[in-house]
Amino acid sequence: MIEFVLDGRSRVATYMQLVLQVKQALRVGLAQPGDQLPKVREVARTLAINPNTVLKAYRELELEGLAEGRPGVGTFLVSTLAGPSLEHQKELRAELVTWLVKARAAGLSQDDLAALIDTTVRATLNDPTAALGAGGQT
Known about the structure:
Layout (H helix, E strand, L loop, with lengths): L13 H14 L12 H8 L3 H13 L3 E4 L3 E4 L8 H20 L4 H17 L1 H6 L5
Antiparallel strand pairs: 1-2
């Protein structure tokens, strides 16, 4: 089951953080059609947020065709965002974990990691050879 985490420093609205976390879980195969989302009251209590915020997130997922509310039962995922790359993600995830351990050992903070990843992704998507040719710098 998905365990939501909120980033209080994020400029993204709380309900949208929940939506994005569900989408990420669907994209990487951590959540699948048929899975039940956590109960609204449980999420609201755990995250200390208004239940209406959770309801708004779940409604957004319903509007996008990813979830379906079942009265008296809960909200269930009905679609996936996982693509053909899902079969390769386990190996890539293991490599990423190894890299993250090395990065943390090198003294990079979570903010440093996010900045390095974001800038490298942007540079690589714009020009795959540029990120390597510049020593990984952007």
